[in-house]
Every structure is written in structure tokens, then in C-alpha cells.
UniProtKB/TrEMBL annotation:
The keyword Lipid biosynthesis does not apply. GO terms for cellular component: periplasmic space. GO terms for molecular function: serine-type endopeptidase activity. Keywords: Hydrolase, Membrane, Protease, Transmembrane, Transmembrane helix. It comes from the Bacteria. Gene3D superfamilies: 2.40.10.120. Pfam families: Trypsin_2 (PF13365). Residues 27-41 have a biased composition (Pro residues). One of its GO terms (biological process) is protein quality control for misfolded or incompletely synthesized proteins. This is Putative serine protease PepD. The chain crosses the membrane at residues 53-75. Residues 1-49 are annotated as: Disordered. The keyword Hydrolase applies.
Amino acid sequence: MTDLLSRTDPQNPWPPHQPAAAGPAGPGGPVPPWTPGPPASSGPGRHRGGRRLAVAAGALVLVLGGGVAGGVIGAHTDQSAAPTASAAANATNVSTSSATLASVAARTSPSVVTIMVQVPGGTVEGSGVIVDDQGRIITNNHVVEQAAGGATVQLSDGRSLPAQILRTDPSHDLALLQVDSSGLTPATLGDSSTVQVGDTVLAFGSPLGLSGTVTSGIVSALDRDAQDLNLSGLIQTDAPINSGNSGGPLVDAAGQVIAINVANASTSQGGGSIGIGFAIPINSARAILS
């Protein structure tokens, strides 16, 4: 199919929604893997991520401190009748769903790694997922393509290990790394051919260097083509995917990896998630393991 997101409308001056690589993280924001921007130094990239987190937290505090939403909700609750059996059942379902997603996040997080690559001028970061007990890790090619040698992998328990780049597949934007260590937790790989629009998913990774980040959403569409990235057959999701998420897993509600995060669409170069992210189906990514 044709990727309408990559087209430019000459009659519309507003910037088009362009798929952009979701990593590695750096001051320039997301950049297409085929035309990488200047490498980011480890210092500024980290500090920038920290400032963004602080701003977001400050905005959240201001919203809650205003009291408007809390007042409206309180008034509505006081004037409502006792919860019906249906309402109680819905509340139980929501609670159960949240608990299930929390358990999926807890099981999957030990399998997710942050990947740091030394490049001329600094360090770039991306994400990856441990796929077997041999210590092999799948990530995106654009995360490691500028590496002069190997890479460094940071595990969820804080350990940093040297990683060997076993092979790369630029045409599918995939790479396979390996670390030598015991006590690793491989993720469970699923079957992306069974994925349906509307399925609940979780995206894992290190956006802006914030390792251990988990976001949630649904599968928005299947078989998307991103012409700007020379990729096809992608899974579209509204789970937020940002710079640094590249190479991390997209996981279903059963805790199985169904895809590898690769890109997000944005209204401007370097922009953040607008709820349109893309991932490489795991059935396609399996090829790099053979």
C-alpha cells in the first residue's frame, strides 16, 4: 500500500506528518536512519532529556494544583446515585486490565536494554531486546550503523556490558548484537501474523535516554509502508514512541514481542510523538536470527 503519511501536499503549508526514526536519542531529535543527523554528545543529550522530564512534571503539577478537574469530578460524584452493578463491573475490569499490563511490564522490562554507541563526537543511544539465552539482542540498524567498533549495552539491573555487533540488515533496519553474561532474561517472541487492529500493546525503550520507560496504546493499523524510511509492512501504534525507543520491543497483552519499534510520525523534524508510531513485525525481524 501507499504510505500517505510520507506525501507532501503542495496546497497545504502545514508541515506533513513524516515518519522519523525513533532513535538514537540526541539533541537533534529523531532522524531518518538513511540520513542521520550529527551525533549527539553523551552530556547534552542526557541533560536535555532531564530538562524535558522536569518541564513535563511541572506542567502536571500545575494542572492538578488548579483544582478545576478535581472540583468538577467531586461535584459529579456527590450528585450521582450509588454505583450500579454494571458500573462496578466496569471498574473491576479496568482494575484487572491495569494489573495485567503492570504484570506484563514487570515481566518484560528485564529483557529490555539501552544501547550506547560511541561515534565521532560523542555517544548515541537506542534500545534493544534480549531474544535468547545466548545473549543475543535485536535492535535497529540505524542505532549502531555509525559505530566504529562495538557497542555498550546497559541491562535493566544497571550492569553495563560490551556488545559485539554480529550482523546488520540495513534494508530492513535491523541489527543483531551479542553480550557475554549469565543471568539474562530473554523475551518471549510472539507471532505478528495474529496481530489485529485494536489489540493492546506496550512499547518499551529508552526515549531521550530515560531507560526503563513503558508506554501503552493499541495497534492502530497493519501493513503500513514508510517510503521515507524504505520500510514496508509495518505495524502502526498509538503507543508513544520517541527518540531513543528505536530497537525496543512492542509487546502484546500476553507479554509476547510482536514487533521492534522503529519510527514515529511528527509534524516537524525532531518532533515528539503525536500518537503515530511504527514497528517492524517480529515475524520479519526473526530473519536476522538465522
